[in-house]
Amino acid sequence: QVQLVESGGGLVQPGGSLRLSCAASRFTLDYYAISWYRQAPGKQRELVAGINTGDSTNYADSVKGRFTISRDNAKNTLYLQMNSLKPEDTAVYYCHARNTYPPYQTYWGQGTQVTVSS
Asked: Does residue 32 sit in helix, strand or coil?
């Protein structure tokens, strides 16, 4: 079964750090643009960070300088290093993969909860 599986979420105090992982199974991420999204209660899902096949990255303004997205194609895994976490970072975090070749398949992970609270 083709899937993306996130891990690494949890409860952390403000100012703390977490690293999220997203492992792909039954397909290779080499030709996919991959991203992290998040959705807080009562809010729309928003793009947090993305990385393309050439390793160019983009970030939401709210996380610039604090979050770092990276990919390890050898491990078929996407990462999101989150530092200086704030309560407003609390959300379910999802990874997303989009094939850069036709027919441009897309996949979503099931999500991992991140809670920033003292």
From this structure: strand
